[in-house]
Amino acid sequence: MNAQPMTCGDYVTATFARDFVAEGFDHDTVERIHRGLFDEWTHALAQSGLFSNGTVAAAVDSWQDDPHSLLSALLANADEITLKRYDLVWEALERSAHAGADAVVEYA
């Protein structure tokens, strides 16, 4: 049998996805993740006692390289409508970032 090693996204999904989706849509969290502000997630992983310092550091490095990977991991078990709402906000933030505007993004 070939066991596949877990990725940092797998860890986040297993640890936080259920609660993240259950708490309802959170526009502010999407903005923080998009801006690369991962402190709450880093702290939660580190304080869980489930992960080594190296695993937490690898997760943060991964998120810095691709912030959307954190959001994807958090939404791994979300329904189609929830995924669409978050995707729309992420896309709007991307457009705003590429336009160089500091506009406030409204969500659906």
Automatic annotation (TrEMBL):
<protein>
    <submittedName>
        <fullName>Uncharacterized protein</fullName>
    </submittedName>
</protein>
